[in-house]
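Usage

Read records sequentially. Each one opens with the input sequence:
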Amino acid sequence: MEEIIKVENIRKIFRDNVEILKGISFSVEKGEVLSIIGPSGSGKSTMLRCISQLEQVTDGSITICGKTLVKNGVYADKKERQEIILKSGLVFQNFNLFPHFSVLKNIVDPQVQVLKKSKEEAVGVAEELLKRMGLSDKINNYPCELSGGQQQRVSIARALALKPEVLLFDEPTSALDPELTGEILAVIKELASEKMTMVVVTHEMAFARDISSKIIFMDGGVIVESGDPVQVINNPQTERMKLFLSRFTSK
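and closes with the structure output:
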């Protein structure tokens, strides 16, 4: 299969000399869904931010769709980085929509500015994606007029509009009420059924088990356990993983 993401021995040290990522390595193949789970502060979101270039690694290598973003801590030139960034789309936990833009404009503007599409073509793509997300009737609304679940669906549509090879989700339901969580998980499940390559940081254990091709459990900046989702969730091999899961099974 085609390798979409390859991460090798990634380290990230912040200015206060705190090492958040301590040699992380994994790969994601085309059509796979990788779920990353673990406690707060384990480095999950930092890893996504390194892949999407919102953070720079201290050392290690990242390859996306066969193009080297960074090798042994040395980044590709600006032009190459700009091309690589379009290969992935990041969906934030807090939506990150422009509050002064309508739903339509939130999806149209990135296509025009980044992909250089005509406004007419971008509107057509936006309308189709909003229909797919069940939001055709919200096209002229502003983010403040939407529920959290609706805002997150708009942010997913915005990411898809840029035609990424892989979608990165940073705890996409953590800012939502429990009642709204299901609608976002359903959207991600549908994308998985269409073989969209995805990396999902999530605290939804049952969802991670059911949707993923593989799971990584991170703690303290390292990968403690990884493998088949059912095996990792239902039959963990490490005491740290067992302790982490006990928080969910004891509820």
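Summary fields computed downstream for this record:
- The chain is about 40% helix and 25% strand.
- Residues 70 and 108 are 30 Å apart (CA to CA).
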